[in-house]
Amino acid sequence: MNQHRAIKSLLVANRGEIACRIMRSAKQAGMRTIAVYSTADATALHVKQADIAVCIGTEQPTDSYLKIDAIVKAAIDTQADAIHPGYGFLSENPNFVEACNKANIIFVGPGAEAMRAMGLKDAAKVLMEQAGVPVVPGYHGENQAVGFLRKQAAEIGFPVLIKARAGGGGKGMRKVDRQEAFDEALVGAQREAQNSFGDAAVLIEKYIEHPRHIEVQVFGDTQGNVVHLFERDCSLQRRHQKVLEESPAPDMTNEVRDAMTSAAVKAAETINYVGAGTVEFIVDASGPLRPDGFWFMEMNTRLQVEHPVTEAVTGIDLVSWQLQVASGQPIPLQQHDITLHGHAIETRLYAEDVEAGFLPATGTLIYFAPSIYGRVDSGVTTGDVVYPYYDPMLAKLVTHAAHRDAALSQMQRLLDETVVFGVVTNRQFLSELCGNKSMRSGHVHTGLIDEHVQTLESNRARHDETDCHTHKHTLPDTVVIASVAAVAMPQSTDVNNVFSRLGAWQQWGQPSCIVSLGVNGTRLNLIVTRLGKQKWRVISNEQQCDGDGDSTESNGVVNPVSKELALVSASSLINGAKVEIGHRQVTAHVIRQGSIIYCQVDGKADQFELPDYAEEANTVLNDGDIVAPMPGRVISINCHAGDGVKKGQTLVTIEAMKMEHNLTAPMDGSIASVHVSVDEQVELGQKLVFLDSGANSTNL
Fold first, then answer.
1. Local mean pLDDT, 10-residue blocks, the chain (700 residues)
2. Strand 9-12, strand 82-84: pairing
3. Which of 165, 238, 257, 302 is labelled catalytic?
4. pTM of this prediction?
5. Does the annotation count 239 as an active-site position?
6. End-to-end CA distance of the chain
7. Which domains, ranges and CATH numbers included, belong to the chain?
8. Bridge-partner residues for 52, per DSSP?
9. Distance of alpha carbon 54 from alpha carbon 38, whole angstroms
């Protein structure tokens, strides 16, 4: 590693939020920043923020961000003094370190030997065991014969964990509860390890039944100094990948902290570690933390995704430290000068579908507006495309408060006030997680999310009916959000295009119209009545509550009760206006993109499809059922059973809230049956007429 050289120009060999974050500290140090990018990232935020940007290949990582030669060449061509690898990609590749050294370019990170020492989990555990660092009982040797590994597992005692010795992220990992299932699990783990890391070798370890993942941030310099910056708890995971991190670890005692941080420092000293690194421990969470209840799991020889929580509780810029140490300077502080202040939480905002098992999502960010009430590290902005080639993390959100409960409450606010339209995310899931009772109690472990997944998994608004007597002044989330979207539509710049298709508003009395929105494959019909300049009444086909939290009933049939939405600042609704629902004021965001309306109210979001009203003038169900889109009175019937009708011909006219609404034929056909009479009072959704298009074989 190069020593005692000032870094004036830094190339960041990464993308997204970590590239932006590294460049921020580099610029504060007066350095010139250089970005590298793939063809897919030509307009990315990290490219825009850099002083110089160099294209290094096409969209696939193997053709760009993983090309050592291309990155080193870019550094030479731009006269970079140093390269910072960020995390992921080439950050733990010793060949990359050696290529930088060969080109006389400073690598901001540890040496190649330290990386290799910790690069394979089995070898690293043998090394740590020799150094006196506690290691999980298991087999970490070279013999990979099925029969031998099966015997080792039996001696260790089930359940055991099969783990790929290379790589991470949960790939090549299988829990085995009984010996009969071992062989099949081993084959699967080896196959996945080979496909992911090019190395099928595995290790076998005793499975800790109620584990926590607690890691220690360490830092070393070229003078032989090693310090720690306390611990982070990373137990909240899905698919063996971290979702939420915090510092300090809940329920941590000084005795356990001293034992754990001492072990982490010893691990770093054993391999002469230089730079920022993280020593991860698996911890027995079946009872209180104890000094003999943690074991070395692995060491990450790079900056971690969750480093901002350590920065928050210590007040130290870790990237700045990395740059100083890489240039040959000693660690700026001694161990006794590093102190812990308050509590910090980090959540990872991903483009992913929680309900589909946290599968990554792609698409265009129609609108992205992070809240200002916290630290947000992001590499995307409105209009960016989330590609399938890279990690789907959009941003890291960080809060810091005097104590844990306040930090979690601040995080919920930060999440609820962050708006993401166009791509499905885990935002609402994270907000629910921060409010979870087990999470709040501090009883965290790696299985917490799986245990509570049914209550946490909804990444859309709540569509079920709310018990009005239990939750006063509340409505199902979708109804509230749709109501705001319907009221907001006339405030949009394309008001003429939208409402010319909705049909005319009344020109006398209280003007009203029907708004029909598609949501989750169904249709939500709303009657919007303008009561004043900035005040509307919305009635939907969902059960609603009156001011006393009661619904009205007639002969056992629930009748909708009007719920007023008063827009306090309708003109700025698209940018986050205050909307009064009943006596509660909330923040709303509404964006229309083509036929899709995106709406977020009080942290709950949904999207709706605006139908083509020229094609769909009334609600049609079951291939011919024409139903009432609102409660009202039939004032005329313009057809009889057996009549032939043309598309667009008026069939029935109903009156509701001083508004006449013509229900027209959505297609050519014949009237099979008429189910109502003039002056009859009809309920929303009640069948009026059945239209046979010729394709229908059954008359009602």
1. 79 98 98 98 97 97 96 98 96 97 98 93 87 90 93 93 81 90 93 85 89 97 97 92 96 97 97 97 92 94 97 98 97 98 98 87 92 94 92 96 98 95 94 94 91 68 37 56 74 38 41 73 75 71 37 33 47 58 77 84 86 45 68 87 90 71 84 93 82 54
2. parallel
3. 302
4. 0.78
5. no
6. 83
7. 9-108 (3.40.50.20), 137-206 (3.30.1490.20), 211-456 (3.30.470.20), 477-609 (3.30.700), 619-692 (2.40.50.100)
8. 34
9. 9
